[in-house]
Amino acid sequence: MATRPGWQRMLVPFLLIAAALVLPVVFARQAIAAERVTVRVESCDLSGPKATQACRGSWRLGDGRVVSGPVDGTQLRAGTEIQGWGNGERATSQLSVWLVAPVLIGGALLVGLGAFGVVWVRLVLRSRRAGGGTTGR
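Below the sequence we write its predicted structure tokens.
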């Protein structure tokens, strides 16, 4: 069985570490930039299944900009004003909704990295034992 070059063997752990560090931050950027706002729900399309239901609204950010965009959350109705969280792209009535994806993705990547580490250590130990246990005598 041919062995792979060292850079190829290190590629998988490097990519897992990079993904574990970068992806949660990328997905959490909307929660990191969020600020407390009053969202005015302007329209809702509640005709389809729950996964396709969408509302749009507007909110004023701390720097004075008024932003219009999608609004996520529960119990949204057109014409109402709710206290929520918003950034320059979207708003939500529950900040925890934005935190679920980064936490789940980051956790899954860390578990995968840990499992890879355990398998790698076991393979290294097995190959050392199978190599005859040379001690340099």
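The chain has a mean pLDDT of 81.
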